[in-house]
Amino acid sequence: MRPLSNVIGIDDAPFQRSHRGNVGLVGVILTKNRLDGVVIGHARRDGADATRRIAAMVRDSAFFQHVQGVILQGIAVAGFNVIDIHALNALLERPVLVVARHAPDYPAIRRALLERVPGGAKKWRLIERAGPMEPIAKVLVQRAGLDRARAERFLRDSTLHGSLPEPLRIAHLVAGGIATGHSRGGA
């Protein structure tokens, strides 16, 4: 089994709770553990465009031909803009791995989506369709287009410091630096 050596890690930029409109997205491309590029995009706060925006961000980049996988910091960006990981996998024809350090509070998420977010029922169905988070290595994952063994290998090969894969750790730092003027660890 070959490792996923050219991977894009995607995270959203921090934003104020009162913010409405677009939120920045940062994609960091690593070849093995070498930083090869950065792509910038955006998605609507609590919107429904994240899957399409991320697909375009990756597909339209100079790195697309070499990207072998996509790794996401959670299943939603820009608040409750939920990513359809199976559609993203189909659009890009690349495996998609969602990573979280802590188990999501699904009852609270469901309640928030159904009671306060426009289109929340559809967004909740996307979360359900992604399947339960499963523990692999030191994180929890959801996956589309790759089996558990390949996800385990990817996490093992790409995690250098702490529990997050290096593409996500760097994407988090870059996104924070762009949005606030400085980066901060603790992705």
Describe it.
With 187 residues, the chain is an alpha+beta fold. It has a single domain (6-179), classed as archaeoglobus fulgidus dsm 4304 superfamily (archaeoglobus fulgidus dsm 4304 fold, 2-Layer Sandwich), CATH 3.30.2170.10. It has six helices and nine strands. It has helices spanning 50-59, 85-92, 106-116, 120-130, 148-158, 166-180, and strands at 6-12, 22-31, 34-44, 69-73, 76-77, 81-82, 96-100, 134-136, 139-144. The longest helix has 15 residues, at 166-180. The chain is globular and about 45 Å long. It starts with 5 loop residues before the first strand and ends in a 7-residue tail after the last helix.
For the record, the count of structural domains works out to 1
CATH topology grouping: archaeoglobus fulgidus dsm 4304 fold
CATH superfamily: archaeoglobus fulgidus dsm 4304 superfamily
Assembly form of the protein: single chain
Instruction: Please report the total strand number as a whole number.
Output: 9
Fraction in helix: 25-40%
Q: Please name the CATH architecture.
A: 2-Layer Sandwich
Report the total helices. Answer: 6
What fraction of residues sit in β-strands? Answer: 25-35%
Provide the CATH top-level class: Alpha Beta
- Write down the Rg: 15 Å
Order of helices and strands: EEEHEEEHEHHEEHH
Q: Give me the side-by-side strand order of the main sheet.
A: 3-2-1-4-7-9-8
Instruction: State the separation between the terminal residues, measured CA to CA.
Output: 29 Å
Q: Can you give the mean pLDDT? A: 93
For the report, how would you describe the main beta sheet?
Answer: 7 strands, mixed
What is the 3D form?
Answer: globular
Low-pLDDT segments: none
Structural class: alpha+beta
